[in-house]
Amino acid sequence: MKKWSSDEGKCPISYTLSVVGGRWKWLILYKLFQNKILRYGEIKRHIPSITHKMLSQQLKELEAEKLVYRKEYHQIPPKVEYSLTEKGETLIPILSLMSEWGEKNRIDVVTNIHN
C-alpha cells in the first residue's frame, strides 16, 4: 500500500493524510482522547483487531509527528504510557465531527438493512 505523499500538489489535505492517514491512526488518537493516558496493552485491548506489529509502528509514527507523547518509566517490569500531545489535541474537533458523522450514518445503514 502506497503511503500518502505530504507534497502531493502542495495540498493541505494531502499533508494531513500523510500524517494521520490509514486505518488505525485516527482510532488510536480517539482512544487516547477518550482515556487521556493508556499503556500499550490497554490500547491493544481497546483495538483488538490491530496486530502488535501494526500498533507499535503506528504509535512510533504518531510519536514522530509529535501527535502522541510516549512516557517511559525506567523500572522492572518496564512501563510505558501514551497520551496526546498539545498538537495531537488539535485533531479532537475533527475526531468529534468524524464520530458524529459515523453515528448518524451508521444508524442510517442499520435502519436501511432492517427495512
UniProtKB/TrEMBL annotation:
SUPFAM superfamilies with a match to the protein in the record: Winged helix' DNA-binding domain
Transmembrane annotation, as ranges: none
Keywords linked to the UniProt accession: DNA-binding, Transcription, Transcription regulation
GO molecular function, one term: DNA binding
InterPro entries named among the record's database cross-references: HTH_HxlR, WH-like_DNA-bd_sf, WH_DNA-bd_sf
UniProt domain HTH hxlR-type: residue ranges: 11-110
One protein family per Pfam: HxlR
UniProt xrefs under PANTHER family: TRANSCRIPTIONAL REGULATOR, TRANSCRIPTIONAL REGULATOR, MARR FAMILY
Protein name (database record): HTH-type transcriptional regulator
Protein's organism: Clostridium pasteurianum DSM 525 = ATCC 6013
